[in-house]
Amino acid sequence: MREGRRGNSFIADNRLKLAARPEDIRILEDGKVSTPERSFGVDSSRILEEVMKVSPRNPEIDSLLKRLSELIDLEETQAARKLLAELETKLGPSDPEVTGANTLINLLESTR
Asked: 87-99 b/e with 16+ CB inside 10 Å = b?
């Protein structure tokens, strides 16, 4: 990992588990330095959420995913399909959230 501009954090992710030991990670917060309790074998999105306390997703995408979940819960499959198509364009068809939502919508449609 290379040093970036002050105030920036970088995580490179190849979808493999993080191989950094907790003692190799430094968290700078409120002028104090600490290390996470665990990191070895944890995926980068969990590091972002648990260690850095940020969402691994863009807020706009996060909002769309929440709305999609609401539509599925309400069994509004037509509206969910429309929103799913938008998300699939942005995230790709193999994104876990996209494939999971598609499976749920298919299940709802097959039980009607």
From this structure: bbeebeeeeebbe
Q: 105 lies in which domain range?
A: 59-110
User: Using N-to-C axis directions, what is the helix angle for 96-110 and 77-91, rounded to 10°?
Assistant: 160
Instruction: Tally helices (H) and strands (E) across the chain.
Output: 4, 2
pTM recorded for the entire structure: 0.62
Residues 30 and 63 in one domain: no
Low-confidence ranges of the chain (pLDDT < 70): 1-19
CA distance 23 to 88: 38
Are 41 and 78 contained in the same domain? no
First to last CA, the chain: 52
How many other CB atoms are there within 10 angstroms of residue 30's CB atom? 4
32-53 pLDDT, tens digit per residue, is 888 877 777 777 777 777 777 7
